[in-house]
Specification:
This protein has about 350 residues and is of the alpha+beta class. It has 2 domains: about 180 residues, Gcn5-related N-acetyltransferase (GNAT) (Aminopeptidase, 3-Layer(aba) Sandwich); about 150 residues, Aminopeptidase. Helices cover about 40% and strands about 25% of the residues. It is built from 11 helices and 13 strands. Strands 1, 2, 3, 4, 5, 6, 7, 8, 9, 10, 11, 12 and 13 form a 13-stranded mixed sheet that branches. α4 crosses α5.
Length: about 350
């Protein structure tokens, strides 16, 4: 198999068509993160995005989009802004990860949201976790009944809060595809305030992430689009969700709600209202992204397994990485884990902030 290395903006129309055809035919690759439009959007705001094109008989049969990091390491396109990544190829394609890296002139591949079902990479996976999703394939009523069955007291409480909000503030109203920049900017402001409150890295503070959001917000193709959805209580903007969509799959990217309305749980109410409306326009799945947040546990229908891990062609680096991983796993199991992990979290935040600034 031959691997041709290209800048993301140098892909030909035939290559883009082949990429699209693979992505449309493989259910495991139906996320908007696997669309060529997402890779090209990131490439438009960063200069380190490349694509390894796998060829057989001169025809493209696979695509490996990545960011070239320090030391020749492949990183996911969009870095921490990407909730799914992997090789764009048919499931029956035979390929070797080490050959792929050499063909792309890479020394390593680090991933944290890899589609775990990609069999050639299983030996390099450290940890697998579910990425929650909402299943709307059978419609809103089926999903609502699923929530009622799983946790009837919680669901009834949310419906009671909905009635209270309508009585005290005003009727709930949804705008599924809102083009008002003031609504989008309000969401960004709420999100930044939350980052400041929690001490998390403000991913919106970097030029390239802000530019990427603007670029994807403007995308309106059937195969890839940015969708800003707003929930109003009366005349008050209560919550905003910014997502990316590919056909029937919607992926939640950023969401925020009005802190003054917290007693009505506007974030959860927004998810329920959006889910109802999305189901009516043909969305069959909403991906929520990997994470332990309570709202994801409450709302999820199931999970897509994603893996964290690394493949390294350098023996010494591979040895050090493996033993660092073992030390980290031992720390997590240790009775002293809270004491030991605290400095580790601070270091991870510093590394994360540095990754966004690169």
């Amino acid at each position: 198999m031959n691997v041709k290395l290209l800048a993301a903006d140098k892909l030909s129309a035939d290559q883009l068509a082949a990429w699209t055809e693979i992505q449309r035919c493989e259910p495991a690759l139906d996320s908007p993160y696997f669309r060529p439009e997402f890779t090209r959007a990131v490439a438009a705001v960063r200069d380190d995005v490349e694509v390894g094109v796998l060829e057989q008989g001169g025809e493209p049969v696979g695509f490996f989009p990545f960011q070239r990091g320090s030391g020749g390491a492949a990183l996911p396109v969009g870095g921490k802004m990407s909730d799914f990544h992997g090789l764009i190829a048919r499931k029956d394609l035979h390929w070797q990860p080490s050959e792929l890296l050499r063909g792309c002139r890479l020394s390593a591949w680090r991933f944290d949201h890899l589609i775990a079902s990609q069999a050639p990479l299983r030996p390099y996976q450290w940890r697998v976790a579910p990425s929650p999703y909402i299943d709307l394939s059978r419609g809103w009523e089926a999903y609502r009944n699923e929530l009622l069955s799983a946790n009837p007291a919680w669901m009834k409480q949310m419906e009671r809060k909905r009635r209270q909000a309508e009585r005290r503030i005003g009727p709930l109203r949804v705008e599924l595809d809102c083009d008002d920049p003031a609504v989008f900017n309000r969401m960004l402001k709420w999100k930044e305030e939350k980052y400041l409150q929690t001490g998390a890295t403000n991913v919106l503070a970097f030029d390239w992430t802000a530019a990427l959001l603007e670029r994807t917000r403007a995308a309106k193709g059937e195969g890839f689009s940015g969708v800003t959805s707003a929930l109003y209580m009366g005349d008050m903007l209560a919550a905003v969700l910014f997502s990316i969509r590919s056909y029937g799959v919607l992926h939640s990217w950023f969401s925020a709600y009005c802190p003054d309305l917290h007693r009505f749980s506007p974030g959860i109410l927004a998810w329920l209202e959006f889910s109802r409306a999305y189901a009516e326009i043909g969305v069959r799945r909403i991906d929520l992204g990997k994470g332990p947040e309570e709202y994801k546990v409450r709302l999820m229908s199931g999970g897509i397994d994603v893996a964290e891990g690394a493949l390294d062609l350098r023996p010494l680096a591979r040895f050090l990485r493996r033993n660092c991983r073992r030390a980290y796993d031992w720390t997590r199991r240790s009775p002293l884990r809270r004491l030991l992990l605290k400095p580790g979290r601070s270091i991870r935040r510093m590394i994360e902030a540095r990754s966004f600034s690169q």
